[in-house]
Design a protein that fits this description.
- 30% of the residues lie in helices and 25% in strands.
- By secondary structure, it is of the alpha/beta class.
- The chain has two domains: 311 residues, Glycosidases (TIM Barrel); 96 residues, Immunoglobulin-like.
- It binds ligand 9MR.
- The site of ligand 9MR has 9 residues, from loops.
Length: 449
């Protein structure tokens, strides 16, 4: 048994009628070596989609520290950059590019030619083929020229195929014919010859009808001398369903002479997240990472948002979430350590590995509340513990039981009592306290240390 020296744990908000309970996060801090350093040592990219409005504070710190590539989640899409014709809004996209420059990161440009998130003026307009062609060429040229030299890779064409491998019916395929893809790539090369040009899609991670259609397209583009540098496998995956042919599929694209990138990785689960599901998710993340690491032309992996509070999944898949490597309170999840492990960092979860702390409010009245912290271990153990947190809204602890608690300013430290320092593997310890609050009573992030 070891004493837990450090460990970022957390959580809880979402009280069910003040009923309590909540999520557990792994009892650990980020591994010593940031993911980006591990990735760089392997010559790989580890990236995240980022929301430019959030790139400050803890979110910005993690984005800058852990990743060597960023992809704007929405800021470079057509509806974002040209909401009305001829009127451009580059500010959010600029923010991402400046952040990347400041943090010595690559940028993946996303995305130039898509059926979705196009501005109304474009989607609802009536265009001749010639007009549509010149609108598309202008768009590609304008956006790529603005960021020329600062974008490592562009998702030039996004989601061109149906699940059965036929071409998706879109404003582009309908208006310009299937060769819009070759035209777009050719215009893109002319606009920024230094950027790697990708075709990106989802449900093309394993060998299947859709990925085979993409394969055949890339093969024919290469044969025709159309500029194409890479294939993006989005990888919006479901827990326990990493395709077994992932590495084989990456390899067959690589063998065509193009790079491959995992561009939008997330692995969703039915909520609530449990330890077992988080362990499965870690194994799934590792499988994806390992497949990329194993193929030299797989340039790297980008996650589609790095925290669970920053993921598209809960908005789109009812009852699903927890798809990213960090909890919504920025605690690294087992998936984080799986990524680190695959990149050669070992699965170096700090002491206290397997121990989690859960903060909850069990009762609340006009000026006071009763709080509880439960420390549980599964796959680890503790011989002593200390739980630390900062109250964010002026709350104060007035009395505690089953722990010795002190508060200085906003900082609270609770250490074990003489009789409950031991938390065996598979066991748990709970302590409680009364406190005061006014205005709001948000749940703090708890650090075990
Ligand atoms: O993360 C994006 C989300 O905020 C948008 O609402 C959504 C709209 O389609 O697009 C999300 O990103 C998508 C990406 O651009 C292309 N592949 C699928 C991603 C998830 O929907």
């Amino acid at each position: 048994m070891r004493s837990l020296r450090s460990g970022l744990v957390t959580l809880v908000t979402g009280l069910t009628a003040l009923g309590a309970l909540l999520v557990a996060a792994p009892g650990a801090q980020a591994a010593d070596t940031p993911l980006r350093d591990l990735a760089a040592a392997k010559g790989k990219v580890i990236g995240s989609a980022v929301n430019p409005a959030k790139l400050t504070g803890t979110y910005g710190d993690i984005a800058g520290r852990e990743f060597n590539s960023v992809t704007p989640d929405n800021a470079m899409k057509w509806e974002s950059v040209e909401p009305s014709r001829g009127s451009f809004n580059w500010a959010p996209a600029d923010q991402v590019v400046s952040f990347a420059t400041a943090h010595n990161q690559q940028v993946r440009g996303h995305t130039l030619v898509w059926h979705s998130q196009n501005p109304g003026w474009l989607a609802n307009g009536t265009w001749t083929q010639a007009q549509l062609s010149s609108i598309l060429q202008d768009h590609i040229t304008t956006e790529m020229t603005r960021y020329k030299g600062r974008i490592a890779a562009w998702d030039v064409v996004n989601e061109a195929f149906n699940e059965d491998g036929t071409y998706r019916s879109t404003i582009w395929s309908n208006g310009l014919g299937q060769d819009y893809i070759a035209q777009a790539l050719t215009w893109a090369r002319a606009a920024d010859p230094g950027a790697k040009l990708y075709i990106n899609d989802y449900n093309v991670e394993g060998v299947n009808a859709k990925s085979t259609a993409l394969y055949n397209l890339v093969k024919s583009l290469k044969e025709r001398g159309v500029p194409i540098d890479g294939v993006g496998l989005q990888a919006h995956l479901i827990l326990g369903q990493v395709p077994s042919s992932l590495q084989q599929n990456i390899q067959r694209f690589a063998d065509l002479g193009v790079d491959v990138a995992i561009t939008e990785l997330d692995i969703r689960m039915q909520l609530p997240a449990t330890d077992a599901k988080l362990a499965q998710q870690a194994a799934d993340y590792k499988a994806v990472m390992d497949a990329c690491v194993a193929v030299s032309r797989c340039v790297g992996v980008t996650v589609w948002g790095f925290t669970d509070s920053d993921s598209w999944v809960p908005d789109v898949f009812d009852g699903y979430g927890a798809a990213t490597p960090y909890t919504e309170n920025f605690a690294p999840k087992p998936a984080y350590y799986a990524i680190a492990g695959s990149l050669g960092g070992g699965t170096t979860q700090p002491p206290g590995d397997g121990c989690t702390a859960v903060y909850s409010v069990v009762n609340q009245w006009s000026t006071g509340f009763t709080g509880q912290v439960r420390i549980s271990c599964s796959g680890g153990s503790l011989s002593s513990w200390r739980a630390n947190w900062t109250f964010g809204a002026g709350q104060r602890v007035t009395q505690a039981w089953n722990a010795n608690c002190t508060q200085s300013g906003t900082a609270v430290t609770c250490s074990n009592a003489s009789y409950n320092g031991t938390v065996p593997d598979g066991g748990s310890v709970t302590f409680g306290f009364n406190g005061t609050w006014s205005g709001s009573n948000p749940a703090p992030v708890v650090t075990l240390g």
